Amino acid sequence: MAPRKIIIDTDPGQDDAVAILLALASPEELELLAITCVAGNVPLDYTTRNARIIRELSGKAEVPVLAGCDRPMTRALVTAEHVHGRTGLDGPDLPDPVLPLAPGHAVDHLIDTLRRHPPGTITLCPIGPLTNIATALDRAPDIAPRIKEIVLMGGAYFAVGNVTPAAEFNIHVDPQAADIIFKSGVPITVVPLDVTHKALVTRARNDAIRAIGTPVARAVAEMTDFFERYDRTKYGQDGAPLHDPCVIAYLLRPNLFSGRHINVEIETTSELTMGMTVADWWGVTDRPANALFLGDIDADGFFSLLTERLARL
Ligand code: RIB
Ligand code: CA
Fold first, then answer.
1. Ligand 1 pocket, residue 243 CB under 6 Å
2. Is 153 near ligand 1, meaning CB less than 6 Å away?
3. Fewer beta carbons under 10 A from the terminal one: N or C of the chain?
4. How far is the centre of ligand 1, averaged over its atoms, from the C-alpha of 169 (Å)?
5. Which atom of ligand 1 lies nearest, measured to the CA of 169?
6. What is the pLDDT of residues 74-101, one digit of tens each?
7. What angle do CA 97, 99, 105 make, to 5 degrees?
8. What CATH number labels 4-310?
9. 163 and 78 Cβ atoms separated by less than 8 Å
10. Ligand 1 pocket test: which of 10, 11, 82 has the largest number of ligand atoms within 8 Å of its C-beta?
């Protein structure tokens, strides 16, 4: 079977980096057409730099990296250096990137690529704020029916918020963008904090990755050592949630996950709950289902898949 064509839209971020590496380590199942960068964890200059660094670390130089939106559609940018460090990729000491960005804007690339490929053949995998994809949909509504599926890391229901008491970071940074996505009619699978908070990088799991002994594995282990210090302290758990690679793992092994087709709407007016994903998990409204909202993960299965694949790079 031909590999599934995907585009990763990202704000690297250590966990984004691991997601990109997992995708690049799985060419039999996934063809990564492009990495499109957006401002989020850190400003766009750093997210594009970090995506280039990770591309070169993987040795897969042929994948184009493009710069996208440097701020949300309407709101001011909120970043997360307190979690990811000043550069967004603090932890390992990695060489400066050499290969350049591809020319052009990521939003134009998303539109052109979706128009050039047969309808229903490209899956978009946003693992940062949804600004690029929403801007593309807003500028070119004809691409909506051409998108096979959007599989996104974002939102929360039982796990509640991580950047405010009500909202998860990716959705909170650009709620207007998220609202466009969830009203687009495109098939959506949501990988929320409800799932990623069960994918904890314990010492044992990170040591298993470190034990692979390759430059990629060492870099991932050092990124995780840095990235997890914040969540370890905040949640008092043995390890931090490894959010973004769950999106790629879902594409590779969907049976590691479970969820429900429900209605999800986005808070875009109240500052108190701005960016909340209002998920009708219990079906208490008659609002139509618009997303597969995942709720559980086989964490051991996820980490054994991740470790096996990282060893390939
Ligand atoms: O809330 C977690 C999400 O926000 C992850 O995608 C992480 O990289 C940050 O972007
Ligand atoms: Ca991210």
1. yes
2. yes
3. N
4. 6
5. 1
6. 999 999 998 889 999 999 999 999 999 9
7. 105
8. 3.90.245.10
9. yes
10. 11
